[in-house]
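Weekly structure sync, notes
Attendees: PL (lead), two postdocs, one rotation student
Agenda item 3: pending single-chain targets
PL asked that the sequence for the first pending target be pasted directly into the notes so everyone works from the same version. It is reproduced below exactly as submitted, 274 residues in total.
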Amino acid sequence: MLKVFANQAGITMNGRNLCSIAGSRLQGKVAVVTASTDGIGYAIAERLGQEGAKVVISSRKEQNVARAVDQLTKAGLDVTGVKCHVATSADRKALFEKAVEKYGGIDILVSNAAVNPEVGGVLEASESAWDKIFEVNVKCSFLLAKEVLPYIRQRKGGSIVFVSSIAGFQPFSLLGAYSVSKTALFGLTKAASQDLASENIRVNCIAPGIIKTKFAAALHESEVAKETALAQIPMGRFGDPKEISSVCAFLVSNDASFITGETIVASGGMPSRL
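Predicted structure, written out during the meeting:
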């Protein structure tokens, strides 16, 4: 019984990562993951591959794509990669075309790309920063979902996951505009899920807390920032990217077949909602 529970939970035992039914839960599925050469995106691509999916990863920099593909391929996963700046229409088109050319279709989209060019309160944001944040974090998430839809429809069903943030529920004082953009993804999830539910296409969202990544470095690199951040987390530690990837793997699998329009919070107990 313990062994079964450990396998389902993805617990590490005796140095081995016991992924949930590794190699079978997503067998035959094709997943596209944006911003997936580092941090949460990389962990998601790795986990989906471990569970049997063929995965297309992407990043704005070609060298990062090549490095990540090499690492994941050496780990025995079926992965290919494409240089993709999600704000560039031609890059998004090439990303999806690569998935179809290489693997024959698309079942899963994980929209993970996000930017935050400025820090400060929401009403302190410059117009240029506001525009950039909403272009990438919200508009491009919408466009990726819109443009992948014909491919997922060809598969008679599939899954879209938007990666938001706990800041979408409880805004971070220094990430004002970013926080608002992440709130918008909750609304996009709800609206799109209702439109697509009858087509067996599920749309869900993940709201990670403070995860130890390069993107969140400002929140954990200095001792002062680290202490301040940890004081907000009831579990008293930062999250690991793998703890978000396991949530994503669940949401895109048949284990979540009756879940759509939802946001799963993985924040170590940080306040979100009732």
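Discussion points:
- The chain has one domain: 2-210+240-266.
- DSSP finds eight helices and nine strands in the chain.
Action: rotation student to compare against the earlier draft before next sync.
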